[in-house]
Write a structure and sequence with these properties.
The complex is a heterodimer of chains A (about 130) and B (about 375).
Chain A: H1 9-59, H2 65-69, H3 85-98
Chain B: H1 2-13, H2 17-25, H3 29-44, H4 51-55, H5 76-83, H6 87-100, H7 109-121, H8 142-154, E1 175-176, H9 180-196, H10 209-225, H11 233-251, H12 255-260, H13 267-278, H14 286-304, H15 334-348, E2 368-369
Antiparallel strand pairs in B: 1-2
The chains are: A mainly alpha (about 130), B mainly alpha (about 375).
């Protein structure tokens, strides 16, 4: 009976089969890992959903809190209304037209002296009554 | 106008502030006059085919243009504060000393150029545009023209007389905003109350936004009633240019300051030292007057522009826009107001932080007709 010499077609087929089996094993392992991750994610998602629902359940009594605090609104700090567009443009124009360099020229002290504290000289202004 | 031109040079050419100042200080007087004409043309939307619109384009400072419709010069209050230091009269003596002899020494070329500009802008020897002469056969003295404008707009005089200590005999107007100062100081008092309560969240709050609004409204009415049909605008620009030049002169140890051999670490100190040298003492509160000039200008311009409306009185006492404001939004003028209150109190000796008798706001009393 004639035997197949080593390295013949049968050995090659066997080697290919082994290779395919290894590949299939890796794919199966990867699929298993993915399925596990999905399961963890599901658990987390479900956990958060439950927590959120529970929290909402607990906070439901506070839903009408703003209405209950309405009588105390007068004690709150004043809300300053925003400037309307025309006033904002006028202020911008004032700023732009008077813009100047806040510079300190050569020989000028870096910090300006504060105004003199004594107030004896009241002769600056004269009314024309 | 001078300080605003300096800013435009810094922005457009990217040079330092000192370099920009030197360009102005060593400019030809004609170039500065032409730029003043350019600023006026922009503010008044002069027609491009008018001769003046063509003339100003010849000037060295023509590239530093002002957008159309913008009044790019300081309020008359700026000129009033600076003129009260007596700086203009002191510079008059400097010019006289240099031009009439050698009592002040021999001026270097830069100082000679400064003399040319000072004589042109402050004492009005010549002008390429007749309408720009700060004085004329009818209005002989530029200082008297300014005194007349201060009287009309603010109802006040300068704290001193003429150069030789005589009473000034400027032309009196038949109308004058005699109640301006009382309204103004009442507004400053209310603004101070608001400033002290900006961060007050729980205690008694004496801020009265409605009163600030009403006072600001009255002040705007008073000021604008003297500016109908742009009256006094031309005088205001001429005064702002003259006093802007004066401020720039004292801003640093320029050539003229060095030539005169005076020392000082700020504008007021230099002004006082120079006053002593030429025998004309500056105002004892010159520090406060120099310190408030620019802030007073911003404050009064904002009032006149009616930035304050019902509900936005905070524009006068906050330093930033309220939370939630969408950018871009200009800063309110709280910083300027605070500085102004301090310096005005120092200059006038009036304590603006305590309650004075409230002003009775009644429009018929605001303008005195003589």
């Amino acid at each position: 009976m004639a035997t197949q010499p080593p390295g013949g077609p049968k050995d090659e087929t066997r080697a290919q089969l082994m290779q395919m089996r290894n590949d299939i094993d890796r794919v199966v392992a990867t699929v298993h890992q993915l399925v596990s991750a999905q399961a963890v994610e599901n658990v987390l998602m479900n956990g958060f959903s439950e927590l959120s629902a529970e929290l909402h359940q607990h906070l439901r009594p506070l839903a009408d809190l703003p209405a209950k605090l309405q009588p105390l609104a007068a004690l709150a700090p004043p809300q300053r209304p925003h400037m309307l567009e025309p006033e904002r443009i006028r202020l911008q124009e004032v700023r732009a037209s008077l813009a100047r360099e806040a510079w300190i020229g050569p020989g000028t002290a870096a910090v300006k002296r504060p105004p003199e504290p004594d107030t004896d000289d009241v002769s600056l202004l004269y009314q024309m009554d | 106008m001078i300080q605003q031109l300096l800013k435009r040079i810094v922005i457009k050419d990217g040079v330092s502030r000192d370099e920009a100042a030197k360009r102005i200080l060593t400019a030809d007087p004609l170039d500065l006059q032409l730029h003043m004409e350019q600023v006026w043309s922009a503010a008044t939307n002069a027609a491009p085919d008018e001769a003046r619109s063509k003339v100003w384009q010849l000037g060295k400072f023509a590239p530093y243009a002002v957008p159309a419709g913008r009044r790019a010069w300081d309020h008359l209050g700026y000129s009033y504060a600076l003129e009260n230091t007596r700086a203009v009269q002191i510079l008059r003596r400097v010019v006289r000393g240099y031009r009439s002899g050698e009592s002040l020494g021999i001026p270097k070329p830069d100082t000679q150029r400064w003399l040319d500009i000072t004589e042109t802008l402050l004492f009005g020897t010549t002008s390429p545009v007749g309408a720009w002469l700060p004085a004329s056969e009818v209005r002989r003295n530029a200082e008297d023209v300014r005194r007349n404008a201060y009287d009309r707009l603010f109802g006040v005089q300068l704290a001193f007389g003429s150069d030789d200590n005589q009473a000034s005999n400027y032309e009196k107007s038949n109308v004058s905003n005699t109640h301006f100062v009382r309204l103004f100081e009442e507004l400053l008092f209310e603004v101070w109350q608001a400033i002290t309560n900006v961060k007050n969240q729980s205690g008694v709050n004496s801020t009265d936004d409605d009163r600030i609004y009403r006072l600001a409204q009255e002040l705007a009415f008073v000021l604008r009633s003297r500016r109908l049909q742009n009256t006094l605008d031309r005088e205001e620009l001429i005064a702002a240019t003259a006093l802007g030049w004066t401020e720039l002169t004292f801003n640093a140890d320029w050539s003229v300051i060095e030539d005169l051999g005076v020392k000082g670490t700020n504008e007021a100190a230099r002004c006082k030292a120079l006053g002593q040298k030429v025998g004309l003492p500056a105002h004892s509160k010159s520090e406060a007057l120099f310190g408030m000039a620019a802030d007073l200008s911003t404050f009064l311009r904002a009032i006149e522009a009616e930035v304050v409306t019902k509900g936005t009185a905070w524009a006068l006492y906050l330093e930033q826009q309220p939370p939630g404001t969408l950018p871009p939004a200009p800063d309110p003028i709280g910083l300027e107001s605070r500085r102004l209150i301090t310096e005005w109190a120092a200059a006038t000796g009036k304590d603006l932080k305590t309650r004075a008798k409230p002003v009775e706001i009644a429009r018929p009393q605001l303008v005195a007709v003589k």
